Amino acid sequence: MSRQAQNNWVVLSPPLPERSPAKQAFRAHAASLSKLLSEECDGENFDEALKRLLRVHTADEHDAALRAALCVLTDLARQRWSIRVNEERGVEVKRPAENQLDPLREKARIRAQELIKRDEQLREPAARRFIKGMEQKSFHNGNLVSIYSVIRDGRELAESLRAARALKGEDRVRALREVINPYLQFVDGAEYCEHTGLRLQDIWRYFRHTWTNQYTATPGRSMAFLIRDRAREYHPVIGIGSLGSPIVQIRERDAWIGWQPEAFLEFASESPSAELGIWLHKTVETAIGEIYLDDFFEEELLSPLDLRTPTPEVLRDLSAFGENQRELHHRLASSKDLKRSTKRDDTGSTDAHWKARARTHLYRSKRALSLVDMLRSRMVLQQHLSSPPTSEEVRALLNTSDGRRIVKNILRKAKADRVGIAMADITVCGSVAPYNLILGGKLVSMLAASPEVVTAYRNKYLAQESEIASSMAGRPIIRRSELVFLGTTSLYGIGSSQYNRLRMPAERIGGKKGEKLAFLELGKSDAYGTSQFSSDTVRALVSLVQQSSNGQRVNSIFGEGVSPKLRKIRDGLDALKLPTDVLLQHGRQRIVYGVPVVRNLREFLLGMDNEPEYCFDLNEPERSTGEIGRWWTERWLRNRIESDDVLARIEQHTLVRPIRHGARVVLPNIDDGQATLFEEFTY
């Protein structure tokens, strides 16, 4: 979709009867929102006005289409889309003109919207009880402690930094290492802080609530960590971080890695080789070998002979079977039927569990359709490549339309096998006050890609059975957890001071001279997703789809496909006959960053190379963490403390009551003077 098309007025015409009360309510709501937007109010007042208007115009709670349409329109107003009512065309909307917005104003707009959602979460009774419980003092090892025990007082830190600033050269660096001495601590739900007795998970969660955006759990793999400061009593928290399963499709990242289909085909055509042919064969044979087939043989969907020499008829029957099983899944499955638990028998084996999972409608469908792809690939490879293949045969294969098509399929399979285990997204990364004022975020960012984190990730998932692969195979499948690439994005589209110019010599942590461990800017995202839609809107859209005659249930089951939330919203917008692709473009372009930690990135991710070539030493991970801390002190900290203004701002973060500190969670609707005075210190 072109940018010009994105910035045009778009008609919203939900299927509401002409001249009906519902149609009139929709137009009236649009007119009210247009008037409200022209008044340019902001913050909580604006959000409350939106909620009030929504209540006014939702006269009939039982009209699912009207309710969903009004919720969508309200969310667009919240995102500052322009709204107008045209007498002839009806309700029209237009996204904010990004290229006309002042970057700082746009950042403030996004920040205000995120804070509204975060504060909504902090108004929930459970969240408030958690925050107050963490701030309540209790005894541990004879001392009164609370979450404040692991928050550093800014006055003491500023005083210590001034004393170090009086020194020069290496003396200053050594003094600063005594003021701030960082180390990594990995968060496990069952582990407690030895200094305070608080659960590590609770400490991490408390500080996460100080971020601008709301705290949400992420599906798939995850690993959280704290950066602590052993230089002071109770080891205060410098920052927090978390890795999570990566987003499968990011165009900018995939183009940079070189595994976008067209880019890969261009590479393969320019450099056809026998090794490439061997890789194609190996990927297909491994994929077929990891598909459970017993039930297919039992039901005579195919025979061992069909497996070796597939025919078009067999592929056609398997495709029809797969589609039928997918239909049955959507009609009959529920989330509890496929909950992510691995049950072992008396011998400790999980074979029976995975075999039962493989025989569900969802995985019978996935297995049949995957088998069709791989058997079709096998047919084409058998036609063009001998064993072993030659580079000329590979060249001839790539010159055919069938050859190029199956290479794309094989590439997609190879990517799927590695993207969730060899890559991770940095989902949380930042420092807390007062360390944020001395560029602590850069320290946390670099430690997120450190040898110690890579090693901890490997150890955590060393023996984990892959959920989808094991369900496809009907037996335990364990993928090697060698983390080779980390990705992340900026919250705002104007760049991230935390990641910009962030690179350190890999030689300092066991790498080769001249190599760097760096956050690389890979491009800007397409600003496509679901973050612009509120929970109320998602519920309204789901309700609408479920009430429709041909509604297809989205079960939120891991392995079912792309994001359940995305599918729910897409199905609902389609049911409203709204321009889905336009509305899913949320207009928040973000900068995509990548951190490769191996030299042979593409080759390892595709399975061409069996071993990753790390650009640092994994044998002494804790020593590397210390070296990263020293590098941060030399590169960033010792210069940052030259600013009197920075030290003065650090001093404002005091733990003397009344506590006025940027690392404290400020609960909304509590008039203690913090929300205004210290708003700049929350993330």
TrEMBL record:
<dbReference type="InterPro" id="IPR025639">
    <property type="entry name" value="DruA"/>
</dbReference>
<feature type="region of interest" description="Disordered">
    <location>
        <begin position="328"/>
        <end position="352"/>
    </location>
</feature>
<protein>
    <recommendedName>
        <fullName>DUF4338 domain-containing protein</fullName>
    </recommendedName>
</protein>
<feature type="compositionally biased region" description="Basic and acidic residues">
    <location>
        <begin position="334"/>
        <end position="347"/>
    </location>
</feature>
<dbReference type="Pfam" id="PF14236">
    <property type="entry name" value="DruA"/>
</dbReference>
